[in-house]
Amino acid sequence: MGKSKRTLGLLALCFLLGFCGCADKQETGSETHPEAGVTGEAGATHTPAGNVSPEQSPTAGGTAEPSGAAAPTGTTEPSGAAAPTGTTEPTGTAAPIATQKPTATPKPAVTAAPQKPTETPKPSRPTTGQTPTSALTLTPTQGVKLGTSLYKRYEGYFYFGTCVSASYLNNSKVTELLLEQFNSITCENEMKPDALLNQYQCQSQGKVVVTVPSNTKKILDWAKKNGLKVRGHVLVWYSQTPDWFFREGFRSDGALVSREEMLSRMESYIKQVLNYCDTNYPGMFYAWDVVNEAFTDDGTGYRDCNWYKILGEDYITEAFRFARKYASSGTKLFYNDFNTYINYSDKIKTTRICNLVKELKKENLIDGVGMQAHLDVSYPSADDFVKTVTTFSNLGVEVQITELDVTTTASAAGWKQQGEYLDRIFSALEKNDRTGVCNLTSVSVWGIADSYSWRASQDPLLFDDNLKPKAAYYSVLQQ
Ligand code: G3I
Fold first, then answer.
1. Which ligand 1 atom is nearest residue 194's CA?
2. CA-CA distance, 187 to 197, in Å (whole number)?
3. What is the CA(34)–ligand 1 centre distance, in A?
4. Secondary element (H or E) of residue 1
5. DSSP letter at 469?
6. Residues 305-341, buried b or exposed e (16+ Cβ, 10 A)?
7. Dmax of the chain from CA atoms?
8. Tell me: the pLDDT tens digits for 104-114?
9. What is the pLDDT of residues 428-457, one digit of tens each?
10. What is the DSSP letter of 181?
């Protein structure tokens, strides 16, 4: 990734100013995605994710008092402004940095032993015996030695992961940092339906054909070789799923298929993907996001999409039925979404997800809720976020924080604020998980370092552009 962040920042600022000028049109949820109009394989056009109407949007600046507040920073990420992390080649090295860019926070206690929880870990917690010893033997000359690591800090309590794109693996400094800090990974884009579905193959064979591209194999083989665990992301999603997949003859200009045909395609797709993973990487996938983002941004209803159009509301249940049928017993099934902490007035995303979980649990179809957690320092409050983790846990399911990032201003003050915000969240989460108040089994950040993020201009991650730890890192580490 070229260091065009400063330019991106300016663009984002211009965009933000533009947004302010037409705020009631553009205010969106703090996690409105930039993927509107993504074109996938063979020219498939995906349903835009953005452009939610203002009444669908969460308001920011508070927890219980949402009205009248300004939109959170995270809402203003312009479409296309975020660097596409999956395709460009990040260097992760000495990219030029804007002069006002804050430097990584010096932390005196980096070599101190992590304050491990003393309680006996609950038996259901993941074990990390597969973690390679190479992760423990990095030398300071590699520039990434921190003296401790995220996964070791939380070992016995929850996995600590990050998303990875294939290009990460071309940079040895990045892979060293990955192995030092994380024991779980998620493919950022490489296991999404538009990566695994091949239109030509589907058309020529007249059936659903899953083909696993070399970039996907590259990540999975690397994870296997290094003993990392993997979160599967994602089986059924409205986005990054080719439009032709829903059409007759797998043709881009075909009519939408019948309910019966779509259920058959859904089953075939889920079966092939899960079987492929089990056969080639047995025991490596500990969780799968079965359905992603089925509800509108604020939870006022079901998101309109091809799955919903053809199958109706129960596409979610059907997906979980197929996933349960074909997943190995060690693979936990998750519903994954963003803005999961919204629950006020008619904006009832938390309640909607809770109701879905209760329904799915009746058939033993679900194991957990994935809270994406694309946050901003101004929204939601740390308290509301942490409470929501407990709300889902109280349903008797696991909770995994699946895509954590926290946007802030690219400044020393912004980084400090980000550190303080994450400190509030992790001091509570660490305590709640340790004392059984919540059932957190995995936390993943959405990217290794700021410049790799889909929201790169807002410095949302734990490591800076030179792979140095920020205040945010130490806050998560709780040191
Ligand atoms: O594949 C094309 C490539 O052919 C083309 O040359 C290139 C040009 O920019 O674009 C490539 O596609 C990009 C894709 O990432 C792969 O790199 C898209 O433009 C880009 O929009 C896409 O962004 C991804 C986004 O999902 C799309 O939905 C982000 O990297 C990824 O971080 C993001 O992840 C999602 C989670 O899956 C679900 N939760 C929200 C999260 C953030 O949107």
1. 1
2. 16
3. 8
4. none
5. B
6. bbbbebbeeebbbbbbbbbbebbeeebbbbbbbbbbb
7. 63
8. 655 433 333 33
9. 999 999 999 999 999 999 999 999 999 999
10. H
